[in-house]
Amino acid sequence: MTVDPVAVGLVTSVRHPGGNLTGVVIDAGLKIWGKHLELLQEIVPGLSKVGFLATRLNWEHPQGEGVAIRQATQRLRLTVSGPTLDESDARKADYQRAFAGMSHDRVGALVVSNDPENFTNRKVIVELAESAGLPAIYPWRENIELGGLMAYAFDPVDLFRHAAHQVDQILKGANPGDIPFYQSAKFELVINLKAAKALSLKIPPSLLARADEVIE
Question: E strand or H helix at 145, and its extent?
Fold first, then answer.
């Protein structure tokens, strides 16, 4: 599993990876980050500034999520605060500094990137967002199981099914480089009502109706 394999330099094409490499992609492309912002706008009245919890590389890379976030905030008439983490940051103290910076910038909500550092520190991030009273949307449902507010996340069962199919093809003699990367097309919206109540947020009924899972 990987994020965009072209953006990170693994291959030059997801359809024709070449070499001896194939796999599954855990996001639906950079446009998905605009969807994260739109969901936050639905639940945070008058939202004007968002934080983006990401590494500097992700923020500055010409094909990274930071570019997509900045483009989406312009379209949605929002401003964004970032980056917040250096590549070596993976400790609680580093995340505490990041949240202190967002508090100083008076952000009204938070988008968490799918950087590996953020998954490793998912419990820390959920705890800090709760302490800061900051509505956050995550790229993994694991954050919601830890008490996070909302996730718009890929369906792991769908990805594992396609990964198993790729392994089957390779075992039957197919060249991995001839097998296209599978890009996740199935996403789940998960909402934690307990977290919403703690943040004094009222989730619109229309959004609850669209959710794939609502945690009471």
Answer: helix 142-145
Would you call 113 exposed, middle or buried from its count of C-beta atoms within 10 A (0-12, 13-18, 19+)?
buried
pTM for the model stands at 0.81
Domain ranges in the chain are: 1-30+155-185, 31-153+188-215
d(CA 8, CA 12): 10
Alpha carbons 7 and 46: distance in angstroms, whole number: 34
Per the DSSP assignment, residues forming a β-bridge with 25 are 2, 183
Fold of 1-30+155-185: Rossmann fold (3.40.50)
Domain 31-153+188-215 classification at class level: alpha beta
Grouped pLDDT means (10 residues each) for the chain, 216 residues: 69 81 72 91 95 89 83 93 73 90 94 90 96 96 95 78 85 89 82 96 96 93
β-pairing, 150-154 vs 187-192, is antiparallel
- CA–CA separation, 21 vs 5, rounded Å? 10
Beta bridge partners of 213: 190
